[in-house]
Amino acid sequence: xRPRIQFLEPDLIEKIVAExxxxxxxLGVALHNPGVLALLGDHGAQVRLSERHVTFTADLIExxxxxxxxxxxxxxxxxEQTNDFSGDNVHFTPGSAALHxxxxxTNRIRKPTTSDYIQYTRVVAQLDHIASQSTALIPxxxxxxxxxxxxxxxxxxxxxxxxxxGAFTIESFEVMKDFQVxxxxxxxxxxxxxxxxxxxxxxxxxxxxxxxxxxxxxxxxYGIPVEFISMPLSGFIAPVTLVGTLIQHTAxxxxxxxxxxxxxxxxxxxxxxxxxxxxxxYETTPMGAVETMMIDCxxxxxxxxxxxxxxxxxxxxxxxxxDAQAGLESSMGATLAALAGINxxxxxxxxxxxxxxxxxxxxxxxEICGQTLRLIRGITPKGDFPALPLFQELLxxxxxxxxxxxxxxxxxxxxxxxxxxERANRARWEEGGxxxxxxxxxSEVVRLLESYRPSTLADEVKQELVRLMEGEAxxxxxxxxxxxx
Length: 485
Description:
The chain has a domain at 66-375: TIM Barrel (Alpha-Beta Barrel). Helix content is 46%, strand content 12%. The chain has helices at 10-26, 34-42, 58-67, 114-124, 147-158, 172-184, 187-192, 210-222, 242-263, 290-305, 324-340, 359-375, 388-397, 404-413, 426-431, 437-451, 459-475; strands spanning 29-31, 46-48, 53-55, 72-75, 81-85, 91-93, 100-103, 108-110, 133-134, 163-165, 196-200, 207-208, 226-228, 233-234, 269-270, 276-277, 311-313, 344-346, 350-351, 356-357. The strands form 6 sheets. Strands 9-10-11-13-15 form a 5-stranded parallel sheet, with helices on one face. The protein has a 4-stranded mixed sheet with strand order 2-3-1-12. It is globular and about 85 Å long.
């Protein structure tokens, strides 16, 4: 039996969806893109172009939900399937778009560089329990207008896993799409085997910007999957109650589903978000708060009720260092998310309110992910019945270390974490140098960097990626890209 967790009764889910639908059909949303407004108007929505506002209809929402796929798959750069976003399948992805990195040498938070990003890509490529890359860091050594495309460029050049990414400008989408077409060979192949998921974020409360709404339409046109990242803040720009926040999250996400599906019915999508409660004491948005995690798990239930695969920013921490708080919040989030069956869990590696990545935390979180993936496999019999012969052997031999039953089932039944997790007795730990968690995690990062093997993507594809990136950089006045090593 797969263990599960549930926060909402079915009738409460239906009430939340009904309330969200009424809000969209009565209050509507602000929308700052004239082309998207016109598209909605052509499909029966009530548009006030001069006020940049749209009011939806229940029929429009229902049709969009009917056309949205209930599942889709991601594939790596070689076209091999890696992620199956269906049912309660669970996949982990590092947190995305961090402005800072925790430098292990100084133990201080600083701006990341191209070198940091390449190291991140080399590490995540070898983490067994992390299914996807994300464009996790924003390098500060390139022009801000190319930071979106540059991160995807580095991910595809050095990594093999699919990428969760996004664009903060309308213009950067085109070259980011061209990168993917270069890897796949043509646009149809990209539609057949998606390589990325684009994060598209409404602005709370009840607003879509020019950029994010255009990203939705552009992704739909090319069949590129999207994830909706609604970010209501309970008690600040959303009702303080968890149910009230869920109503707002549902309304904002439903509005994005409509935009995407009328642009191209059948566009793959993840019903996702990054909501948080608001800590009035410090004016912060704690991702490690239990209420934030409860909202994430609950909106996952709403997404599945609507027949959609899901995503959440969870399994991350608000701590500033790799400390006990980081482990507490990340492991609690990963466990709840896995038990809830969230399909794409975004967060490993992240610290400081979604603003900082740490390679050392990422390798620790990889172990947390592995343990939670074991957890949701549950407990099932494996050659345990009849039990009498096994116990006769145990009494005869006084151990089962080399028993056929042990050798057959030990790898599937028991999880053996890597060296980041200390399981030796105290004497062996002391003989090994009495290492701290941070020291062990850094040693693992160093090992992974040394064992990295370059991507086997065809040389001509890599050359095309470089050509496209250099052209995009020149377009924004940067004649030379940073050195890559």
